[in-house]
Amino acid sequence: MRSGSWVFVGALVRLFSVHAASIPFLVCELKVVKPFKRGFTCGDPSITYPYLSNEVISDKLLIIALGECHRARFRSVSSKSFVRNLYVSCLYKELGSFLFGCCVCQSLTNMAKLSIGRLRPHFLHVCGVTYASLNCTPGTYVPKVNCANPDHRLSFFSGHASFALYSMLYLAFYLQARLTWRGARLLRPLLQFFLVLLAVYTGLTRISDYRHHPSDVLTGYVQGALTAYWVVSIPHRPCLVHRSRYMQTPLYNHLGHLHSVDIFREMADCYTGNCATISVEEAPHHCVKYF
């Protein structure tokens, strides 16, 4: 099979992986599976908070802001891809791993929400009931309350916290790999700090507007951070670099992103994390990371 065919097959496999990872997320969003109906203890103060209709940061705002940042960053990047549209091919190469991680992160979140069915802090308010109307004895278990909206049983764990920390931590890792200017010795950690700060703030707002319990947000932070670290540290097979002519060629760093260097080196073992030079024409195809 020709090299171009292998590139196409590899692209299809990666696209399939992204779509497969998103299946649990889509199943949950389309309401195919109902959340577990959990009861509560009469007199429990953690589910008696008022419902606040306005969210501080919405899903759409986060998605649009993130998408526009990447669009502005990658419009001028050149790409040699079987996809002829420059913008599409750049997004495919640069955002493939990120989108895969997004699908994994949200699928894990929704699976936990549906399986556990934890009641939100404003559960009684949105269901229109009180402990007095239930006529229950404090400390007794109430197995069932009729509530039309199943969303109020999806408290654990916070999807906003997990997605926000995953996204911002991924961008922080990206800056660590790409922002190599000597003058950015303090600028880089400053930008990384604000990215993480934004993610933490997003999760804290979910507590202040009574959408989640503190433990929901904390678990979301942990899940998002672990997913981001896992996506950027997926190991790759080593490749062997042979002598190549003096040329300007794109390189993949340990995050799989491109940068250019002048290369002229004898034979050397090249690994994804510490590779200094590579000849694209001579390197085996399994060394090229398309995401």
TrEMBL record:
Q: Name one Pfam family in it.
A: PAP2
Please tell me whether the keyword Phosphoprotein is annotated for this protein.
no
Look up and give the membrane topology term.
Multi-pass membrane protein
Query: SUPFAM superfamilies recorded for this chain?
Result: Acid phosphatase/Vanadium-dependent haloperoxidase (SSF48317)
The record's annotation in PANTHER family points to: LIPID PHOSPHATE PHOSPHATASE, PHOSPHATIDIC ACID PHOSPHATASE TYPE 2D
- Keywords assigned by UniProt? Membrane, Transmembrane, Transmembrane helix
Localization in the cell: Membrane
User: Which GO terms are recorded in the biological process aspect for this UniProt protein?
Assistant: phospholipid dephosphorylation; phospholipid metabolic process; signal transduction
Protein name, please? Phosphatidic acid phosphatase type 2/haloperoxidase domain-containing protein
Where's it mainly located? membrane
Give the family, as the similarity comment puts it: Belongs to the PA-phosphatase related phosphoesterase family.
A cellular component annotation (GO) from this entry: plasma membrane
Q: Name one GO molecular function term.
A: phosphatidate phosphatase activity
Q: Which residues form the Phosphatidic acid phosphatase type 2/haloperoxidase domain?
A: 95-232
Source organism (scientific name):
Xiphophorus couchianus
Which residues lie in coiled coils? none
InterPro entries for this protein: PAP-like (IPR043216), PAP2/HPO (IPR000326), PAP2/HPO_sf (IPR036938)
